[in-house]
Design a protein that fits this description.
Layout: H1 4-15, H2 22-26, H3 36-60, H4 65-71, H5 74-97, H6 104-129, H7 136-144, H8 148-155, H9 163-182, H10 190-226, H11 236-253, E1 257-264, H12 267-274, H13 276-291, E2 299-304, E3 307-313, H14 317-330, E4 343-349, H15 358-374, E5 379-381, E6 387-388
Parallel strand pairs: 4-5
Antiparallel strand pairs: 1-3, 1-4, 2-3, 5-6
Helix pairs in contact: 3-5, 3-6, 5-6, 6-9, 8-10, 9-10, 12-13
Length: 392
């Protein structure tokens, strides 16, 4: 019997056929499996949209006080105006003091503040309005305050969020609606309240699907932008972004980070003898061979031509040497003439080599790769000048 997650993934695959891979479909459910590059770009987009929405609310929220002034008694108007100015100031602070930094935690905090400000305003204004007996136009304007939760939930649709994130954001708003209803327990019109709450749930569902659709589109675009079109591994541009991110994390935590520069041996000879199509096939087969033997967390990127970078976060030099010895023994695929494809490699590690930035790490690994070439190829050179030859 299929599990719930399997059934859900199958349903999503039918709705998004051809747009996402089976693995990427799971990214629509939770952010925990997202690639670091996707997480950073999504975090930046969400914060920018949070600031845009906050700016709109900061400007428009006080303006409604003019309508309140014409229809409400002065004490009620004054209380609502004070709440509006407070909310507007909070929205303005969100615009001024928040800047995208690519960190998901800060993104969640900005979203929480964006939805918390109007939620608190809604409960406070609903409480104040409940102390007045309004009629006619005043009652109609007062009833308009009850639509704020609908606006908030519909607003989720502009953010590329996962299913889990949408549920977490919507829950406090739905709870606020329930609290507001409980404050008027004795006089509450239960059929109207139940209908309104059901409509809120419906809007939540539609907004959630809209946000997940945005996320699916973003995943597809990011995949195209960060992957090398020939081999399917990461492109040089995305590798530079990932190197900067991983180097920063490694420096902050004082943890290890290794980098291997890989250059395929005698690749020009393949193009000259068998043609560029054969060379492209060799590059694709090599990417598959290496990619199938990567450890979890390792990243392979095409640096240019027949040059590749292997980024190994949380990996010491000794661990990297052991991993690459296994890869040397397994090989990098076959040449068109049936001979084994070999590579020359240079290894650098952030802490052991005392690199100040990721560019220095790449240059050092590149230099050692040339040492491996001059030393006979089909081997790897480390910081100690050690040549790690393939196992017999």
């Amino acid at each position: 019997m299929q599990s719930f997650s399997q059934r859900l993934r199958w349903q999503l695959s039918q709705l998004l056929s051809g747009e996402l891979t089976r693995t990427e479909l799971l990214w629509l459910l939770s952010p925990h499996l997202h690639l670091a590059l996707l997480a950073r770009r999504r975090a930046t987009m969400i914060v920018n949209r949070v600031r845009l929405v906050a700016l709109m609310f900061a400007l428009l929220t006080p303006l409604w006080s003019l309508i309140d002034y014409m229809v409400f008694p002065f004490p009620l108007w004054f209380g609502l105006a004070a709440m509006r100015l407070t909310a507007s100031a909070a929205f303005a602070c969100l615009v001024v003091f928040y800047r995208p930094n690519g960190e998901l935690f800060d993104t969640y905090r900005s979203l929480a503040l964006l939805f918390a400000i109007p939620s608190v305003f809604y409960v406070a204004s609903y409480t104040l309005l409940s102390h007045y007996q309004l009629s006619g136009v005043s009652a109609a304007i007062g009833a308009g305050y009850a639509f704020l939760p609908f606006v908030l939930l519909a607003g989720m649709a502009i953010f590329p969020l996962t299913l889990l994130e949408n549920l977490v954001i919507a829950s406090p708003i739905l709870v606020a609606q329930a609290v507001a209803g409980s404050l008027r327990w004795a006089s509450l019109d239960w059929p109207s309240f139940a209908g309104a709450f059901w409509l809120l749930l419906l809007i939540t569902s539609v907004a959630t699907m809209a946000g997940m659709s945005q996320l699916a589109f973003m995943i597809a675009l990011v995949r195209q932008a960060i992957r090398d079109p020939l081999t399917g591994v990461f492109s040089r541009r995305s590798a530079e972004e990932m190197l900067e991110l991983q180097f920063t994390l490694s420096t902050r935590s004082q943890g290890p980070m290794s980098l291997v520069f890989i250059d395929l041996d005698h690749f020009k000879d393949i193009n000259d003898r068998f043609g560029h199509d054969a060379g492209d096939t060799v590059l694709k087969n090599m990417s598959v061979a290496v990619g199938g033997n990567l450890r979890q967390g390792d990243v392979l990127a095409r640096w240019g031509g027949e040059e590749f970078l292997l980024i190994m976060p949380h990996t010491s030099q000794d661990q990297a040497v052991a991993a690459m010895q296994r890869m040397l023994a397994l090989g990098f695929g076959m040449r068109p003439d049936g001979a084994p494809l070999t590579a020359s490699m240079g290894l650098a590690e952030r802490g052991a080599d005392q690199c100040a930035d990721w560019r220095m790490l790449v240059e050092l690994a590149d230099s050692r790769m040339y040492q491996a070439k001059s030393g006979g190829r089909n081997r790897m050179v480390t910081s100690e000048g050690e040549v790690c030859a393939p196992r017999p």
